[in-house]
Amino acid sequence: MHRIAVVAVAPVTAFDLSIPELVFGAAEVAGGPAYEVLVCAPEPGPVETTGSLRVVVPHGLEVLAGADTVMVTGSGSRAEADPRVLAALRAAAGRGARIASICTGAFVLAQAGLLDGRSATTYWVQAGALGHRFPSVRVLPDVLFVEDGPVLTSAGLTAGIDLCLHMVRADHGASVANAVARLTVVSAVRHGGQEQSVGRPVAAADGRSLAATRGWALDRLDRPLSSAELAAHAGVSVRTLHRRFLAEAGVSPLQWLLTQRIERARELLESTDLSVEQVAGRSGLGGADSLRRHLVQRVGLTPRAYRAKFARPGRRP
C-alpha cells in the first residue's frame, strides 16, 4: 500500500491538513484502501493552527523514512522551519520519495532546497513573497498546481484537492480518481494549468448556473458540439456563455469539453475492451490519432500504454 506522510508545520492551516486524508482516504483499489495516510510533526501531540482550533498529531517525523509520498500542508509561519523537518524532507527526497506541498507548504519545501531550479506555485497572495525570498524557484502564480519531476506544489485551499486528485489519477487511473471526486463532491478534474480564481466573479446565484448545460454536454460527448450549440441550450449568447463558463468552471467552453472528452476516453480505456478507434469515437475525440495526441500531451502515455498501466480486471466489451 502506498504510504503518504503529511507534515504539519505549526501554526498549521486546518483545512489544508484535512485534505490528504479526505482525498487519499477515499481511494479504493480492488475493494481495499489504496493509501495509508500518516500525519506527523516534529513532536507528536497538540499542534497549533492558524485559527482557534488545536489538532492532535499522532506521529513523529520517523514516519517519513518509510513514506512513498511526503506532503507539507499550509502553515501561517514564514519563519525558518524546524531543522528536523527540513532534514527529514531532504532525506525523503534523497531516497526518491515523491514530495508535495499544499498552499504555503511550498515555503517549507523551498527552505529545504527542494524547489531550487524547479517551477512551483503557492497561494496567489504569497506567490510574490515566495519568488522574492527564493529567487532560484520559478514561481508560477496563476496556476492551480505544478508538477516538476517528483516535486508537486499547489495553490491554496481547494487547489490542494485538485493536486491530490491529480496524484490519485497518476497512481491509479481516472476511474479511481473520479470515484474519489464523486465521494468528496468536488470537480473530477481541474488540471494544473488552469488559473487560480484571482479577482474572478463567482457563479451566478440567481438560478442561471450552467450546470444543466454541462450535464447536457456530458451526455453528448460522442457528438461534435460547438460553443453556439452550448449557448443555444443555455439560452444565452456565445459571448455570455464564455463569460459565465470562465466564472463557473475556470476555463472556456471548448477547453472544458476537451478535458471531459479526454477523461471519458481514459475511463473507457480502463474499463472496456473497446478498440482505440472506438474509444476515440465514443469520447468525441475523432479518431485514434487525435486520442493518441491528446493523451500523450495530457498524461505522457499512448492509449495502449495507458490501458496496460490502468486497465481493470473484468473489463466489459
Distinctive features:
317 residues; globular; single chain; two-stranded antiparallel ribbon; Rossmann fold; alpha/beta; 2 domains; sequence-specific DNA binding; Arc Repressor Mutant, subunit A
Tell me what you see in this structure.
The chain has 13 helices and twelve strands. By secondary structure, the chain is an alpha/beta fold. It has a six-stranded mixed sheet with strand order 4-1-7-8-12-11, with helices on both faces. Strands 2-3 form a two-stranded antiparallel sheet. Strands 5-6 form a two-stranded antiparallel sheet. Helix 1 (14-24) runs parallel beside helix 5 (158-172), helix 8 packs across helix 9 and helix 10 runs antiparallel to helix 11 (276-282). The longest helix is centred in the C-terminal third of the chain and has 19 residues, at 253-271. The two termini are 30 Å apart.
Number of strands: 12
Radius of gyration: 21 Å
Q: What characterizes the major β-sheet? A: 6 strands, mixed
Order of neighbouring strands in the sheet with most strands: 4-1-7-8-12-11
Query: For the record, what is the CATH homologous superfamily label of the largest domain?
Result: Class I glutamine amidotransferase (GATase) domain
Total tally of structural domains: 2
Approximate strand percentage = 5-15%
Q: Strand-and-helix sequence, N→C? A: EHEEEEEEHEHEHEEEHHHHHHHHH
Helix content: 40-55%
Going by helix content, strand content and strand pairing, the class is alpha/beta
CATH T-level fold name of the largest domain: Rossmann fold
The CATH architecture assignment of the largest domain turns out to be 3-Layer(aba) Sandwich
Q: How many helix segments? A: 13
Organism: Kitasatospora indigofera
Domain HTH araC/xylS-type: 211-309
Keywords: Transcription, Transcription regulation
GO molecular function: DNA-binding transcription factor activity; sequence-specific DNA binding
